[in-house]
Design goal:
The chain has helices spanning 8-16, 42-58, 112-125, 175-179; strands at 19-20, 26-30, 33-37, 63-66, 71-75, 78-80, 84-88, 96-97, 102-106, 130-135, 140-147, 150-158, 163-165, 171-173. With 180 residues, the chain is of the alpha+beta class. It is globular. It starts with 7 loop residues before the first helix and ends with a helix.
């Protein structure tokens, strides 16, 4: 698969860990296998930007909000690049974090199964305290909290509904504000 990427530098970087290449695709490594996600639609990108702005405004100084610039790499065989990642500044390296406080995936038809099933399991296995799934097409936000070794659903919000979270920091969320 790596040979088909075309650009040897991108293929090499992708094999070493998740990377968002100049071609707009997202490259991740799951269980030692390269997973490539295509360019996402404008509604996806708009939701990511809205989330970034909201999170950055509420983010304490000792934490950081990353959009496409840091991988979550808890092991050598796993490198994920969530749409939005929140972590501790102290734990962040130049290219990745080994611990994440929040991972957010903005779903699209092409990524729905991976986001809802595969990544949910992987983030839980590696102790990410909060995982959110935002569906811009349905104006729906699912808020999951790690309890033990699995996620419990804290809320499923639609449209104008709001919910107050405390993890990774206090914040009021509404799907309409993120996807409207």
């Amino acid at each position: 698969m790596i040979e088909r990427l075309g650009n040897p530098e991108v293929a090499s970087a992708a094999a070493a860990g998740g990377v968002r290449a100049p071609d707009g695709r997202r490259y991740e490594v799951i269980d030692g296998r390269l997973v490539v996600t295509g360019v996402q639609p404008p509604a996806h990108q708009a939701a990511v930007v809205a989330l970034m702005v909201l999170l950055k405004q509420a983010c304490p100084a000792d934490m950081l909000v990353s959009v496409g610039s840091l991988d979550f790499r808890p092991s050598r065989r796993l490198s994920l690049r969530p749409d939005v990642l929140v972590g501790s500044r102290a734990d962040a390296g130049p290219q990745y974090v080994q611990k994440a406080l929040l991972a957010v995936e903005v779903m699209s038809p092409a990524t729905r199964v991976t986001d809802v099933v595969v990544k949910r399991e992987l983030y839980a296995q590696h102790g990410v305290p909060a995982y959110w799934l935002l569906d811009p097409d349905r104006q729906e936000l699912t808020i999951l909290q790690l309890t033990g070794t699995d996620y419990s659903c804290q809320a499923v919000l639609q449209g104008e509904e709001t919910f107050d979270v405390t993890t990774p920091f206090p914040l009021t969320l509404s799907p309409a504000a993120l996807t409207g």
